[in-house]
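Lab notebook, bench 4. Still working through the backlog of constructs that have no structural model yet. Next entry is a single chain of 397 residues. Request: give me the structure tokens for it.
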Amino acid sequence: MIFKNTKNTRSSNIQKIMPTKNILIINSTPGVPEPMDLFKELASDNYAFNFMTGSRQFLQAVSEGAWMTKKPAIFPRAANGLFSSVAFLLLWPFYFFIFLFFLFFRKRRNNIRAVVCYSWPEKIIVTPAAALLRLKIFWIELPGELNLKSRFSRWLFRACSRFARLVVFSGLTKNELAAVGIKKSLIFSVAPGLKIDGSGEQDNIFDQLAETEHKKTKRKFFTVGTVLDLNEKKRLETLLQAVRRCLTVIPNLQLIVIGDGKERKASGWLAKKMGIDGLVWFVGEQKRLQKWFDNFDVFVSASDYLKFSDIRTVLRASAAGLPVIGPSGIGLEDFIDSRSGALFNETDDSEPLAQSIIRLYKDRSLRSCLGQAGRERVVKDFSLKAMAERFDEAINK
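Model written out:
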């Protein structure tokens, strides 16, 4: 096992007023789990976080900040087949006693108050040990990541969930959990949030919107933008077909696709096959989305299913004052609606998507009203501060 320790910096004055809330976060999956900015926000409000991770990327991310970190041994995989189920059952007692000892040690030494689990293996292994030590247990249920293929994995999930509070970020995830037999009383909803500069100054919001709209009146192109993970199957083909349909009405149309992945080259060939490669730009990953959003006229969500990163991207687009077009039935309705910045398409057909783009192209006033309403709702309901307060409520309940 690899150990790396840094201590969370705290103001001595704050610590004297209120004891620090020590939370252990465990994640065995690759990559950096969302929402890291939530924990950073809480860390400035008398929280101390300890991280256990098998991901080098996650280890590097938390090591760059003022966190206490630890890289544990590899977790067993989720039990979704006969062989993996048998292997998991054989390994479970071994992992259980390791974590029972570890949590006991951390509870005594670091005064750990609660444990947060991300993926299936640690939920099933760590939860019984944490419950035995009377620690609070929270499961992070991210949108689009509930993957319970076998009856055995669903049964274990339901059995261990009795000791935990399941934190969800969308109504669709809440319904999915209820469908596999999770009691609604165990599910705690937290609206995702963004840190928006000047969100408390209403006059500045409208000034920014007016300036953006003024810039758009002088543009040469009508720009439709989207952000995609090009490693997965998406509705990009439908969007490309819609762009081609729009050309008879919007000759100065261009599409900008932000994102990267193994399907990027194939997507470029698809655009070329459709004869619109001169109008479609694949710009790769972009860290500063705001500068791109400032040059879009419309934002299209082209996801087949909604992940947490997709939600945050849609909220950022709305916060930038962009009208959003998205598919219905994947959970977007929790964050945007026809009264606050969005148009929805009922099917995967490119025709209704093209008509929505054309409608926004023809009606500048509608674009402005939808963009303004979308930003107002994000500022009001989806701030990072509100998300942190809601999570704090779950911890203290």
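Notes after review: The CA atoms of residues 51 and 69 lie 5 Å apart. The two ends are 35 Å apart (CA to CA). Flag for follow-up if needed.
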